[in-house]
Amino acid sequence: MDHGSSVRVTIDDVARAAGVSRQTVSRAMNDKGDISEATRRKVLATIEELDYRPSAFARGMRTQKAGTLALIIPDITNPFFPAVARGAFDAAAARGLGVVVHNTDADPAAEAEASRRIVDDGVAGAIAFFEEVDDGAVTALGRRVPLVVADRHSPDPTVASVRSDFATGTRTAIAHLRDRGHVELGMLDGAVHGKPERRRAFLEALGDDGDRVVTAPATVAGGTAGLRELLARHPGTTAVFAFNDLLAIGAVRALKAAGRRVPGEVAVVGYDDIPMAALVDPPLTTVHTDKYELGRTLVEVLGRRLDGHPAEHRTLAPRLVVRGTS
Amino acid sequence: MDHGSSVRVTIDDVARAAGVSRQTVSRAMNDKGDISEATRRKVLATIEELDYRPSAFARGMRTQKAGTLALIIPDITNPFFPAVARGAFDAAAARGLGVVVHNTDADPAAEAEASRRIVDDGVAGAIAFFEEVDDGAVTALGRRVPLVVADRHSPDPTVASVRSDFATGTRTAIAHLRDRGHVELGMLDGAVHGKPERRRAFLEALGDDGDRVVTAPATVAGGTAGLRELLARHPGTTAVFAFNDLLAIGAVRALKAAGRRVPGEVAVVGYDDIPMAALVDPPLTTVHTDKYELGRTLVEVLGRRLDGHPAEHRTLAPRLVVRGTS
DNA sequence: AAGGTTCCCGTGAACGTTATCGTTAGCTGG
DNA sequence: CCAGCTAACGATAACGTTCACGGGAACCTT
């Protein structure tokens, strides 16, 4: 009921106690110049003694920047994202930044709403997994706040990016399947926009017309349905490459239900290496992307941007993890 | 580079454009009284027209409360929490609130640091999954900011709580196992503090001395190790109840590796019903807790608290989901 | 008709910080 | 010895909002 009843220790209290002006206190804690080493230490000591904490509001009011950054993701429930978020949390905490998460369900309207909130809240910077193919929105947000986009490139040179190299990841998976002797390959593509690399690399490697690619919702249920469709089109299919692990797991389930042995009769390889992948039976062969590292790198790149460096563009290398489905 | 170069539309601009004072504008947007319906509509219209957004900083400066709430969890990577977070995100978004997430790894020092940040950032309220058994810290935080704790009760009457009824959940699971004819039961308890209900209910139902309970880290690896220990102590064990699904999945793996059929020779039931539970082979029988609903309820309770209502204490009922391991 | 409400609305002040500019003392160089 | 510089610090003014007042008009009440 009486929240906030205790009086706040302000910068003036510190100034008074240290026998200096509040401006000097400000200089001491913000590592600005124009202050002698002696007084700075004294000020810092009294700050410690009084347990003074600067008001984030008052500070943000002047600087228009908060000590927090925004993370826009489609769905924290999608097993790909918790690890990404964790990497981002840890790296942000190390920098003394908080992270406010926005779920969008890959809905453009929700993405716009999140962007709106972000500029309103005056966060220090933003990290975004955007679905919206229209670059206008991205550029608009990038103009208002330092921005790093994941798995996507922005035409705006001030928007940094970190992406996983899907093309070579896909090629590695297909090469692996060919090494195992498979010739009739099929693909389960995820029904998501803006991520054509996997499908493109697949078609490129096969010189195919696309009839061997079926698109389905990127879920387990989508995987079982998609696999049936694929088998209906090409009964001789002997190996399946999936857009992500959820689809792959669904495919394996459908295969087992149909009485086909995995990997004896049909091999399956997924993408992402979510935690579940190692625990299903048989454990899933998949292209591993380091999600924690992705999250970490995203805030690292954002941090460098906040420190005044130019926008970087980094690429993370995936690697194949061979388990029991191939 | 030139972030924030565009000039801000302030409340004074709106006031000028609408031909009223800024106080009237404030009244219009905050649904305060003392304003006629006519002028309020006019003000709202000009707000819309000028695309005015109140400064969160300036507002927070006066009210000491931001439009954001904090969510303290041990680990977003633990499959239990993404769904909780999602429920919290959705409910918060519906209320126009942002959510800043703090990962603690159940480390008291990290929990203290998160609490520190929370009061510093002046969030509107906080939701916490605390590990710290010492109630002093919880009460201290609760005194500074409206607080709702999950799966735990606070002695402080101003701290609200939402908990899953672990005791009856556990009893239901054990009754199910007994119905199946099992008599030699064992339990895999998680090595976490502050959650004795499951173990207690288990021991209570058995009238046992605790020798049939082995404690292990609440992970898959902990489950396999714990099960071996359990079998070493009581080779005749025919049914295992686990603290959570991770432990249960680990147990099933160990069982299969040891050549024991599940559920033919040994039955296993987990707790939580994480997404993985339905996908392992055989699919896991488990006590389902509605994690999304938990997250949703947590912010609902917090919201009512913010609206001035007294602290509530709610309990969510779990239910048994029988699948393939029992 | 005088006093009392109620309904609207505006004026000043305050929240706690940082930016800008000014001031002082001490030092340098010619 | 004085102009000019620099280092260290302080005073004032913002940043944009809400709170505590106060006051005028209209509408009752007796």
From TrEMBL, chains A, B:
It comes from the Bacteria. Pfam families: LacI, Peripla_BP_3. Residues 9-63 form the HTH lacI-type domain. InterPro entries: HTH_LacI, LacI/GalR-like_sensor, Lambda_DNA-bd_dom_sf, Peripla_BP_I. GO terms for molecular function: DNA binding. Keywords: DNA-binding, Transcription, Transcription regulation. This is LacI family DNA-binding transcriptional regulator. It comes from Actinomycetospora termitidis. The lineage of its organism: Bacteria, Bacillati, Actinomycetota, Actinomycetes, Pseudonocardiales.
